[in-house]
């Protein structure tokens, strides 16, 4: 919840979100965030395949086929 809305509006209208970001600076920021995550021990994960079964199951659940099946009405 934002308590100081005047400060928030001033920051939002003239803050860093309004500055143009060149590609070189974006790559530098990305590299810095990657190195920071590595220094915290967060990235890379110890087991990259952990939870893969759940992700596959979720992907199968939310996968929508473009062709109607026998159980769905045709438009």
Distance between the termini: 44 Å
- The coarse silhouette is extended
Number of strands: 0
Order of SSEs: HHH
Q: What is the makeup of the main sheet?
A: none
Secondary-structure class = mainly alpha
Report the uncertain regions: none
Mean pLDDT: 83
In short:
With 75 residues, the chain is mostly helical.
Structure notes:
By secondary structure, this protein is an all-alpha fold. Helix content is 52%, strand content 0%. It has a domain of 41 residues.
Relevant terms:
75 residues; mainly alpha; 3 helices; 0% strand
Secondary structure blueprint with pairings:
Layout: H1 5-14, H2 23-40, H3 52-62
């Amino acid at each position: 919840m934002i308590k100081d809305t005047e400060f928030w509006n001033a920051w939002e209208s003239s803050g860093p979100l309004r500055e143009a970001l060149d590609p070189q600076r974006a790559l530098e920021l990305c590299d810095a965030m990657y190195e920071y995550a590595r220094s915290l021990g967060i990235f890379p994960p110890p087991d990259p395949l952990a939870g893969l079964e759940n992700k596959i199951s979720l992907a199968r659940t939310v996968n929508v086929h473009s062709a109607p099946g026998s159980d769905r009405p045709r438009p």
